[in-house]
Amino acid sequence: MGNLSSRARRRRPTEEKSVSGLLSLEDLETKGYDIENLVFANCGAEGFSYAGSMRVLEKLCLLERVKRFSGVGTGAIVATLLAIGLDSKELQVAFNEHLQNVQNDDELGYESFATNYTEHYGWNYGNHFFDWFDELLESKCFDKELTFLQFYDKTDKELCLLVTNVNKLKLEYCHPKTTPDLPIKQALFMAISTPGVFAPTKYGSANDVSLYVTGALTCSYPVHSFDGWFLSMDSDDSFLNKLESPEMFYMPQVFDNRSPKTLGFFPLDKQKESSHVELVERLASANADLKTPRTTLGLKYKCACQNRATLAHKFSQLKKACSTLLLLAEDLQDDQGNIPLNSFADKVFCDKSFTKSDRLLFPEIGRRPQDLNAFLLTLADEENSISQLRLKLFIQSKLLTLLNQYSSYYKTDINNLRSYFETVFDTTAFSTIELSKLDYDRTVGIVCRHVGPQDVDFEDDDQSFLYRQGWNATVCYFRNLLKPTDDSSGIKSESVNAD
């Protein structure tokens, strides 16, 4: 979510009337949209896009019908805020307050670093977070120590927050069925606790206490939360009725049978966009506005895209030149795979298949055969020849250098201990349970382009961009993928406009 030198600033909530490029809702109706479960992926600053998505659900009268909320990491914050009754506008205010608390917490001073790590195993142990969340609960007429079961009894809504049990090395689900007496605020702090940045939470029975951190270590997108019987509150699905052995409790089969009533939200930053092209094309096919704003982050992203495009073209040229160079070498190699230096250097400059443009891609070749010969001598195993392997390794190094330049345009800057921990965590998250193509039909993929998890200090136009992306991605989902069914509920459908 950023670093100590980057301060989250107060922002006014974005409203749709101030955002250009929003897709119209006039062709959408609530009839048949049977959605009861909302799931939110882990994210960072991209979480502001969820407000645009939720505004669409409000306009379509769908948010009020949701009975179950699930989230992990920062997505757990969004799931909890919506569950306790915040609307899309209040969500933006509270989410920004959360970022401010995380970024500006006095506990993060370097003078307390050693003490916090020694005593709490983490830098931030949550005092400001708990004060902030207590106020939110009381503002919605809930007790500060509200438990999962109490919340379920009061609202008939289920909240699921994913956490990692460090001692047992496993993912756990905080929910009225599994942790009825656990205070929601305690589970929420577990769910957002990035190791190193936040102190782990000790929780369990007297003889079985474990340390808990964010569930995003093992699952960044819990779209399966309400599949199968595991978290079902139906009496027929009780653990007493379903579990035949202790091992069964830990088997993935407990989430078999996908719920058709689940809708998940998954932000696609610049790193993930290329892995989920179909979700991006969903927006493009609806002529959704994907234009990047001319902000500091936006211009940096555009520059990176242009540089990557240039390098991609250069890679294509270099690959062709490398192939030609190897073909020239193969014509000269002896039975032992060695290539005579003088003959190879002469052929590189004389053969028309290796052009002047090709030679410019290899500064080492020089302007004359003698220059190339002198360079190859530095690589050669023998005085007058070079092995095919040595030549291939040299050529391959040219490609690898270019590929490293290509990837560096999207790298994350690490300039202090906090950003180091968060970047390491983001790196490990790439190997977690993420978005599968099998779940595209129940996922709103939000293209966040230039705003990444740690880009907290973004501008107002970036916030409007995120809002628009959340809105448009949700509209595209309903237009293109959700198949309306016959409405047997008796609820009258109404057309909803975007103004």
From TrEMBL:
Single GO BP term: lipid metabolic process
Domain PNPLA: 38-227
InterPro entries referenced in this protein's UniProt entry, alphabetically: Acyl_Trfase/lysoPLipase, Lipid_Hydrolase, PNPLA_dom
Keyword list, A-Z: Lipid metabolism
Name of the protein described by the UniProt record: PNPLA domain-containing protein
Species for this entry: Acanthosepion pharaonis
Lineage: Eukaryota, Metazoa, Spiralia, Lophotrochozoa, Mollusca
